[in-house]
Amino acid sequence: MRYYFSEAMRHFDDGAYTIAEYYLNRIKDDYLILQDHIFYYLAKSLLLQEKFDGSRQYYEKVLQNFPDSIWLEKSSLELADLYYIEEDYAGAEEKYYDFINIYPDSDYLPYVLYQLAQCLKNDGRPSDAFSNLKKIWLEYPSSEYASSAYQQIQELENEDLISAFSPSVEELFARGESLFYYYRYGDAIDQFDEIISGYPENSLTAELYSNTCFRLGMSYYNLFEYGDARKWLSRCYEQNPGSSISHAALFFLGRAYTNLDNNGEAISNYRKLLAKYPSSSYGDDALYRMGRIYSIDNNTEKAIESFKKVFEQYPSGDKTGVALWELGWIQYKSGYYPQAKESFSNLASLFIGTNLQEKALYWQAKCHIRLEETGKAADLCRQIIGLGSYSYYTFMARDLALSLDEPATIPAVNTDLSPHGTGARELLPDIFTDLEADSAGIDGWVDHITKALELIKLGFHNSAALEIGSGIDILEKDPERVLEIATLYYSADDYTDCLRLIYNNLGNIKSDLSDDHLAYTYYLYYPYGYKDAVDKYSKIYDVDPLFTLAVMRQESNFKPDAGSYAGARGLMQIMPATGKNIAEQISLPDFEEGMLFDPEVNINMGAYYLGQQLDNFDQSMVYCLGAYNGGPGSMSGWISRFGTVSEDEFIEHITFLETKEYIKRVMGNYYFYRMLYPD
């Protein structure tokens, strides 16, 4: 049965629908575990062959017999399309309206509205068609159907079937906001410009004019065009300082000026914000950013003053933790160790169970060392290790305690439980019994997770992911099944879904399962992904393969087609320009940007670049990572300014927040990989 299903899917994907139908018919009555999948693909195969009566029959079977199927939404939609293809517009209209009522938040809604408009046009109801086309253009401007909807509106106008379409300025603004929230900043700018240039300022309410200027400014800001952002944010505030958005305009004006290397104007706008809008939700962030500017400029007194005000004036704000950290760090750098110790102690007690807690405990220990209180420092190191996070600070705490000749041991992980060995099967037979069971012949109702297991065994990971999403309540109650599914993902080299599944359920695994289960979980959570390529190219470029893995895990979570907003691509997040340069250096012919999504090519380039940066920075992994993330030039600058301090202090001196956190995460990954794979 599995063979027939796999063959059916292969031929379906190849467009051989008749052959797919043949294989599906062979198993439709017996392969009950995936019967809803079979009925759905039978319906679609028949639809694409224009065998409409048979197709309708199987869509109805899905809808009537499988009330929790992952195919309900698509079956409902495609059944409506079937009526439309048959030119039964009244029947299609009824089905499309049914779909809207059942799935009001569906991603397919713009398409459904568009199809409804076609039905209504064909049924001689242009005004009703216009209502749906207008809704698409105004409320779903990022949809692929928006431009076609507008074109059809114009056609209806030209045929004198409707009055001229003249959206209100409020509707245009709402359309621009929708484009903005879907990151279509260029299109949003065009829409907001149309309001500014197409309507006299005195014809707009003061609030609407201010909001339009603000959205224009923020669109430019998000496109990194800070000069234009400054222009429109300034106009927003100056034209209507009493508007509801003025405080936000001042805040982002401050940020724009920082990006324009004008910290004086940035601070001026932050101060204006705090003076005029003391209750602003941006108040704590403004104070925090003022403190950061003063700190970077070595204005210790004003930096301390700003950070203190954050948690004194905004104790429930989301900047309290980072402000307390910055305060303690400045005090530490300035040699005010008793004060720094108190700040770090307060931070640790306020943020129990978070990354800030162990960070604060670590630097509190460092303060104790400076104050020659080594026993207290060692106790704090052991407390950090006891948190069991296996993070950067876990390993740094161990090393710090050992430097004091104090015992501090990180609990070992049972290395016999690696998926690459036989220990997991022997120690956790409960996980593997279900995996090896023949579920193909299951009769009766089947839950989503059992279907997911079957689909992963067949290699259909996308459908399995849909089943897992629908069965999340089962996983919350039975974390052992999480490990079953994750094991199948791992075995299929799908490390991304394996890692994601563990991440979403790690709390339940830790609280509900045994230590052996948890040890096995760590191997799934820190996979030795793409082992052959990692080992091969790491050896060629003289890089520890576990270091390559640590970088890959942080960069992409082992997702081969990962991309970033900045344009980085693939497992090791290589920028296209960097890839082109590396390709020349490693003699890789005919380089194209798409090659960066090839795991072999990307790992080759990533390992090469890591090796290059290790060579450039005296084999320092910390310096290498700073160069990898923040750029070699920036790292050279930080070394020249802060290179004489200890490694942990050096990392905290780095002025790029993203880079300092990146180094700590990757080094934490690396240290833990060394525990998992000690040989």
Give the topology, please.
Layout: H1 2-13, H2 17-27, H3 35-48, H4 52-65, H5 72-85, H6 89-102, H7 109-122, H8 126-139, H9 146-158, H10 169-181, H11 185-198, H12 206-222, H13 226-239, H14 246-259, H15 263-276, H16 283-296, H17 300-313, H18 320-333, H19 337-350, H20 355-370, H21 374-386, H22 392-403, H23 423-427, H24 429-436, H25 448-458, H26 461-470, H27 472-477, H28 479-491, H29 495-512, H30 515-525, H31 531-540, H32 545-556, H33 576-585, H34 599-616, H35 621-630, H36 632-642, H37 647-653, H38 657-676
Helix pairs in contact: 1-2, 2-3, 3-4, 4-5, 5-6, 6-7, 7-8, 8-9, 10-11, 10-12, 11-12, 12-13, 12-14, 13-14, 14-15, 15-16, 16-17, 16-18, 17-18, 18-19, 18-20, 19-20, 20-21, 21-22, 22-38, 24-28, 25-26, 25-28, 28-29, 29-30, 31-34, 32-38, 34-35, 35-36, 35-38
